[in-house]
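The step that takes the researchers longest sounds almost clerical: writing a folded protein down as plain text. The outcome of that step, for a single protein, is printed below.
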Amino acid sequence: MHAVDDVREVTDRARTTAALTALGVRPGDVLLVHASLRSMGPVTDGARGVLAALRGAVGPEGTLVVPAFTPENSDTSPHYRARTRGLDAGAVETVRASMPPYDPALTPAPSMGALAEAVRTAAGAGRSAHPQTSFAALGPGAERLLAGHRPDCHLGEGSPLARLYEADARILLLGTGYATCTAFHLGEYRMPEPPRRRYRCVVAPRGVRRWWEYEDVALDDGDFAALGAAFEEAAAEDDVRRGRVGAAECRLLRLRAAVDHATRWLTEHRRRRDDG
């Protein structure tokens, strides 16, 4: 029985790798992945099986990157507002006191999904330092892509997104839509004078837990689905490839093309929205 299970596992991983290759994933790619594993249907070995298939598709010279965001340690995040909605002042203070500080080596990213956790906890994985919008990566390019993530820059020029842009990375939307396309946020930073706001989260420099407040661009993904549809309609050949991996509808995007389009589209449409 054990031998049969092993053969079935290899076949399932091989089939997933073959589907990724057919979609256009190539050895040596730098790949930013957003995944809904549920949309794929049953997968042998779950998230770790999908991770193995992705690594097989990009090969030993390729690098996988995933968002490893942590809204759970912020009291300015939608996650916090949902968690504390309807609570009295005492209960809110209890929640705040229980919120753990960010530790890149230990803090989980449960809201990012099973694949992100599989990457984050894999042997040899790295993670960027931002206490709210870190990225995790595996592969020879990981250290370079993750280095220098400024704590006051969620997703702009001081973040791994800008390094991914420089690396001509591609984005894999594995069973997810454009609403989850984190790279579009880099377009927000590249708009003329984007609006800014205050953020706050729990950190522990030198092991001392404290709240830290900082200012950054006001992130807004509310129009990303419409932005993605416009990008796909205007995209040049090979900027967007579509296919299936398991039961999941997938897209493979050139990150530079997506960000450049986002910068133009957001500048025009948000100005029109704000003026209207």
